Amino acid sequence: MVKPLTQDEVDNKIDPSVSTQWDESTPIDEQFKEMYKIVDGLKGGLLTTIRPGIGPTSRAMAVAKRVGPDFLFLANNHSEKFKDLKNDKTAQVTFQNSSNMDWVSVSGEAVTISNDDPRIKQIYSKGVNAWFGDLGDGVHTGMPDDPRMTLIEVKANYITYWKSTSSLPGFIKEVGQASLTGKVADTGVNRRLTDKDIQKARDSGL
What we know:
Layout: H1 7-11, H2 16-19, H3 28-42, E1 44-51, E2 55-62, E3 65-67, E4 70-76, H4 80-87, E5 90-96, E6 103-114, H5 119-123, E7 149-164, H6 168-181, E8 188-193, H7 195-204
Antiparallel strand pairs: 1-2, 1-5, 3-4, 4-7, 5-6, 6-7, 7-8
């Protein structure tokens, strides 16, 4: 339901969309589980790196594996993203579900950039070679031992996400009502997971 501004919020010039921005009532474990459900259902998102002289640069990437709050990708080390990561390990992974407006933003660091990591064979799946091609030399085959095949491991240090609590028609109706009435739209919950929350989740195997 649309939330009205209280007189106290008006009198104290408190912006309710900011003061009530974060969900502080849901247990952290549940917040992680619901975030995992969103990203696991989408399988892929945008991997953003920092390019010298340009700034944030994004491209669509399939997630090879999620390990708790961290993400593994397989990529061609001839691509420019590797030049970005050599200069700056900062990375961000974002996901959005256009059907219900759920989104997840994972800020972190690319802690592993390796083409001989044993996990490559563990997470490689049929179809990955379609993005590499077989050069016909018996070496650059698009298979796990292809020297171009490189693991990027992004370790999270801050996560924010939005979980919708209404259907898409309900979302549109709620926003429309709020726009007409001057009240604040209530269409979902916004959550944040700090570095301490994330490390605790890793340690517990969550």
